[in-house]
Specification:
The protein is built from 11 helices and 2 strands, in the order αααααααααββαα. It is an all-alpha fold. It has one domain. Strands 1-2 form a two-stranded antiparallel sheet. The longest helix has 29 residues. It comes from Mycoplana dimorpha. Its main location: membrane. Belongs to the 4-toluene sulfonate uptake permease (TSUP) (TC 2.A.102) family.
Length: 273
């Protein structure tokens, strides 16, 4: 067990991550998982959590935190009247189904495999955001069913495998079909709700009885980290919502892209560095 002073330092690091995740939940409509997963991975490693379950635990714990932060973010964005409620209603089965599929896959895949999935998606979305061109569009409006429904399942699955609330992929999906970035961000907060709740139970199931988990863990969810971060993240999320609507579309895209590149690079280093 690390010295008490070191544990205090890491508790402070988790608190700082809570601030960042709360802001991200508001700004980008995401649950903050893209910053929490790498932080958890480092902290759990320092606490000697085995490599075989460390990434799984990081993702599951992140999903648990996304439940309240996405709910808070969705409430804030809905009050501003820019959430596409019709799209969310059409995905009320597709997104949870994808989140459950992600938990099943996570129960079977290695830690390195999960990190590679995280990196691949983060880099792809970041490049799309940073190199965005007006002609990079798949259509003028969202596709009809069954393609729209299938997209919901894919977004739910990939987001569940990354430990994020779906904003990363939904923002890309909606903007590629001509929707404004602010509407995409606002709708993503609702996507996070539909992914994180079933995802939470899925990761508890996937990690049930797994060896090497730290104290106060239920499956691949560690409640100590959840308890430390949720109050802070909830407190700062409304400020992120306000900031999102004060920035321009391009500012949001550039900030989002740079953020994803940094996170992806850090995980790539953890695999091959």
């Amino acid at each position: 067990m690390p010295p008490v002073t070191d544990l205090i330092v890491f508790a402070l690091a988790l608190a700082a991550a809570g601030v960042v995740s709360g802001l991200l939940a508001g700004i980008f409509g995401i649950g903050g998982g893209a910053i929490l997963v790498p932080v958890f991975y480092q902290v759990f490693g320092y606490l000697d959590v085995p490599e075989a379950v460390r990434m799984h635990l990081s993702i599951g714990t992140s999903i648990a935190i996304i439940v309240p932060t996405s709910l808070r973010s969705f409430t804030g964005h809905r009050k501003l009247g820019v959430v596409d409620l019709e799209l969310l209603k059409g995905w009320i089965v597709a997104l949870p189904l994808g989140a459950i599929l992600a938990a099943v896959i996570a129960a079977l895949i290695s830690s390195q495999g999960l990190r590679l999935i995280f990196v691949a998606i983060a880099f792809a979305v970041a490049l799309r955001m940073l190199l965005d061109q007006p002609h990079w569009r798949l259509g003028r409006d969202l596709p009809p069913n069954p393609w729209r429904w299938i997209a919901g399942v894919v977004i739910g699955t990939l987001s569940g495998l990354m430990g994020i609330g779906g904003g990363v992929l939904n923002n890309t999906f909606m903007t590629m079909y001509g929707r404004p970035i602010h509407q995409a961000v606002a709708t993503s907060s609702g996507v996070g709700v539909l992914i994180s709740i079933p995802g939470l139970f899925g990761y508890i199931w996937a990690g049930w009885g797994a060896p090497g988990l730290p104290p106060l863990s239920t499956g691949f969810v560690n409640w100590i980290a959840v308890a430390l971060i949720i109050p802070i993240a909830l407190a700062v999320t409304p400020y992120g919502v306000k900031l999102a609507h004060a920035l321009s579309r391009r500012q949001l895209e550039i900030g989002f892209g740079v953020f994803l590149l940094l996170v992806g690079a850090r995980f790539l280093y953890s695999i091959y560095g």
